[in-house]
Amino acid sequence: MEMRKRQQIAVITGASSGIGEALARAMAARGTHVVLAARSAARLEEVAQAIRRAGGVATVLPSDLSQPDAAQRLYDEVTRLGLEVDTLVNNAGFGYHGPFESEALEHLHGQLQVNMVALAELTRLFVPSLLARRGTVLNLASTSAFQPAPYMSVYGATKAFVLSFSEALWAEYHDRGLHVAALCPGPVETPFIDAAGPEARGTAVFKHTLSIDQVVRECLAAMASTRPTRVVGWRNRLLCLSGRFSPRELVARMGARMMLPRSLSVPHSKGDLA
Ligand SMILES: NC(=O)c1ccc[n+]([C@@H]2O[C@H](COP(=O)([O-])OP(=O)(O)OC[C@H]3O[C@@H](n4cnc5c(N)ncnc54)[C@H](OP(=O)(O)O)[C@@H]3O)[C@@H](O)[C@H]2O)c1
Q1: Pocket of ligand 1, candidates 74, 90, 94: which has the most ligand atoms within 8 Å of its Cβ, to mutate?
Q2: Please, what CATH class does the domain formed by 9-265 belong to?
Q3: Distance (Å, rounded) from C-alpha 271 to C-alpha 273?
Q4: Which of 39, 100, 172, 173 has its C-alpha lying 20 to 30 A from 133's C-alpha?
Q5: Ligand 1 in reach of 189 Cβ (< 6 A)
Q6: Predicted confidence band at 269 (pLDDT cuts at 50, 70, 90)?
Q7: What is the pLDDT of residue 265?
């Protein structure tokens, strides 16, 4: 008698838009049951409906990962539904672009919580069962993980955390059959850019953007590979590499030039030119 292969199950955070939504659709089209998490329940339901119309399987679990107990609650809900997870994609994340002193404390705290704390907690909660199934963790880092990101300082630091954390876990687990990978895209054309701040799009950094399709292909490749880190795009690979061989001060200053909000670069009076 022919044994039917068990359907793979993936939890994807930040699946209500951008990279997470597109990756969820792509994984569902390849036969994975996708569990969609983010805050916007209605939007997640639309994504799930589209996946089901295309013949896929999707479960919606609305979750605000900025809340301290959100990772535990999401994990408990997945467990309660009896879903045995093969892949965890920690994709939810957001940034703030602008002068550091202008970022609201609540927003800053939300970034730390979503980009780092929830990501680490979800990984910790799912790792035992992922180990048992020889599964995969994919963490969305960024090219800003490789150098400081002036005017996006907190965001860059959270992504440096994601990269370091992912590479450490990769080394801890790769001989035990669990694959942990960090994907590092440069700027991608998603709602992330405008959500980061009104001046982000006008900076040199956001001039060259990757397409969501390209990033999704790289996400799938990162999960299929055995390597810990994948930087998306040749221009970005070159930038990350050159930063490693340059003085840290120079790299930080170059970053400040590339991320400078236009309103700070325009002199306010003739006297400022002196
Ligand atoms: N776009 C870029 O330039 C770029 C470059 C490098 C790396 N990345 C990384 O790629 C990942 C995906 O970003 P994207 O570009 O696809 O941006 P996006 O379209 O804005 O998507 C961000 C996702 O995160 C979710 N999210 C935000 N706050 C959340 C919260 N408190 N709780 C749960 N989910 C939350 C959002 O859903 P809700 O609003 O519904 O909660 C949304 O689904 C992020 O980690 C980002 O840092 C982006």
Answers
A1: 94
A2: alpha beta
A3: 5
A4: 39
A5: no
A6: very low
A7: 78
Q: How far is the centre of ligand 1, averaged over its atoms, from the C-alpha of 198 (Å)?
A: 17
Task: State the distance from the centre of ligand 1 to the C-alpha of 15, rounded, in angstroms.
Answer: 8
Burial of residue 68 (CB within 10 Å: 0-12, 13-18, 19+) is: exposed
Q: How far, in Å, CA of 208 to CA of 184, rounded?
A: 15
Mean pLDDT of 257-267: 85
CA-CA distances (angstroms) from residue 154 to 70, 98, 187, 269? 21, 11, 16, 31
Mean pLDDT of 216-245: 94
Catalytic residue numbers? 155
State the distance from the centre of ligand 1 to the C-alpha of 56, rounded, in angstroms: 23
Closest ligand 1 atom number to CA of residue 144? 6
Instruction: Say yes or no to pLDDT of 41 above 50.
Output: yes
At residue 42, the pLDDT reads 98
Does residue 233 register a pLDDT over 80? yes
Whether ligand 1 lies within 6 angstroms of the CB of 19 is answered as yes
d(CA 178, CA 182): 14
pLDDT at site 274: 36
For Cα atoms 54, 59, 62, give the angle at the middle one, nearest 5 degrees.
125
- For residue 4, the one-letter residue type is R
In the chain, where the domains are located? 9-265
90 ligand 1 Cβ < 6 A: no
Per-residue model confidence (pLDDT) at position 113 = 98
Beta-strand pair 87-90/58-60? unpaired
